[in-house]
Amino acid sequence: MPQSTSAGRDRGLLLATATVVVFSGVWLGAGLVHVWSHPWVGWLLLPVTAVLAGCTCWSVSRNSELDAGTRRFWWHLTLACGLFALGIVANTFDAVGGPAPSQQVGPVTLVLYLAVLGTVLWALLRLPSWQRSRSDWIRFGADAGIVLLTVGTLIWHFSLRDHERWVAQTGTAGPMLAITVVAGLSMATFVKVAFAGAGRLDRRAVYILAIGSAVSSALGSLSPFLIDRPYLSTSILAVPVAAFSIHLAAVSQQRAGNRQPLPRRSRQKISLVPYLAIAVTDILLLTSDISDPVQVRAMEVIAVALTAFVVVRQVIALRDNQRLLGTVDGQLNQLREYQVQLTHQATHDSLTGAGNRALFEQYTCGLLADGETFFVALLDLDDFKAVNDRLGHRVGDQLIQETSRRLSAVLGGNGLLTRLGGDEFAVVVQAADDVPALLEQLVVAVGQPAELDGATLRSGVSIGVTASRPDDDPAELLRRADVAMYAAKGTGGNGWQWFDPAMDIAADDSARLAADLRTALRDDQFFLLFQPIVSLPTGAATGVEALLRWQHPERGLVPPDVFIPVAERIGVINELGSWVFARACRQSADWAARYGDTAPMRISVNVSARQLADPHFVDAVTATLRETGADTRHLLIEVTETAVLNAGIAIEQLHRLKALGLRIALDDFGTGHSSLSLLLTCPVDVLKVDKSFVSGETAGRAADIIVKNIIGFTRDFGIAAVAEGVETAEQAEHLHRVGYRLAQGYHFGRPMAAEAFENRYLDKPAEVLSY
């Protein structure tokens, strides 16, 4: 059947039931002033209301859109309506079936009405309930007791206390029982929907049933007032009202369909029921007939019982409130703890536990606002990227954590340590502290060896420091410290520098130089020079070292010690190194093709630590050798001992280069931390003794001893030795006398172009010493 047709039919049946209710009300009202000669007319249509309500309930129970529990409930109400119709017929025969109208209720009628009430109550109890705590059940019991006692008192006071007269008129106490049960059912319905829940049943339908039950009960309780009118009965109105409420509830459910009921509100409101109950009972007590001691005593007992219920309920409420307050206090404490944790997380570094940039800004802003003089030192680990590239980020993180612990230990409580990001830390100290001594302690502490994940690391640190000024802000303090820190790196690192205003000029110049450096290779501004490596004592060229030079279009010739650190800092050193190696390979192949056996035995090419840290470096070298056709026997790779100091990937790369046929030279030997140990792990073919042991201010007796000892153990290791920095003939003669056969320096030749080298050395065949 279409939904519109079904809805129209439901409205028509409901209108018919409502018409019967109106007719019954008018009939009962008119009977109060007029004696009906045919009282059966008032009973004639009452069974029809129950049948109509039953038809609508049956229609709802067959609605496939509803869940099984809801359909079962309406099927039970269909059954209840059938019993209700039979009860009405029996009640009609009791009232008008005898020789004279009567208000007597027979046992059959009473049993049928009680069956109706039992069926409805059973249907309600089978509906799903909400979950409730023990305190909820105790409070519910108190509320139910209050309601039952109050309603029972009202029914007793206004109706049942005259039961002797009622029984004398009707001949039975059945109506009193029916009224009491109907009242109990209405309260049970209210309790079910308000406290225990009603599953997916339409809430409005349940409210309609509860209200209809209560109104029907109230109308039934008025029967004692009609004792002197045996042709009338309040059932004439109570019955159709009950049927109409069932009918209206079924229509509401039909319209609601399978709509999900609104969620139960968890917020508890203040209940006025206990206080209203006491007020009603107190009024009844005050208006009771004091001449009737039984009535007074009954009202007193009822008042005491209600007071007891209210006290129990209040005690439960107070206990629940106390528990709730305890929960709220606990949650507030947790909230405060969370706030502390969030504040700590917002101002501290998660890796090291030190403060972060936010805390640095907050702390320095406070000091600046107070007008105090303080110092900011910016610390950056030297060659930290190489550690990450060689050993991985996990070891890098461990190094940062260890550095943070060491810095904290040195500072103690005399300053603020913050990590700004990466391997960069900031320290804030007060003016009263001995800043230079503190900075020296920081440098020494960070430089101590660290055992991390099976590797021994020795990390230097560069520090820039500046003093605060009245018009400073955190960003300006960090900028000046950063400029000073890069100045410290420019001097070789592992030290500290005060900020000087002249550094700003140098920093600007360095920034411009870095910008120019990024385009210099593309614009072909680089070229190679070659410095001879000669045999002693003849001075014949046995090899050359390829040296990179930059011809800047505006600055002119830029020294390598100026642009190489900048190239490493901005990350273009790998690209430059690849370019140098490719040019050296082409030059070696060209000389071998043109000069044959008189070509230089070796061309040395410098490789930086960053190149060795690149996992793809050896693959790039292999591709360049294949592209240029250079003979690996004529090529020598020079690395500084600091580039391979911390083994790992650098040593692996050198072994792979050695496997290609390239020879390996260790440059600046003797200036690092662990040169001798490198001879055991690094595949070294040539040692280049640093010029500081040969010439210059540091050369002396101690240096001479070192030079002699180096040539001694190189023979034992089968390693060639090249003395760098030879500037005079006396130095060359001395080196030859103590055992050196290879040397390099200005005495033999400055770095020169390829053509100049060819003209000076390659056109004159000479005895050449292999190395």
UniProtKB/TrEMBL annotation:
Pfam families: EAL, GGDEF
Domain GGDEF, residue spans: 372-501
The protein's name: Diguanylate cyclase (GGDEF)-like protein
Keywords: Membrane, Transmembrane, Transmembrane helix
EAL domain ranges (all copies): 510-765
InterPro entries: Biofilm_reg_signaling, EAL_dom, EAL_sf, GGDEF_dom, Nucleotide_cyclase, Rev_trsase/Diguanyl_cyclase
Transmembrane stretches, start-end: 12-34, 40-61, 73-93, 105-125, 137-156, 176-198, 205-225, 231-251, 272-290
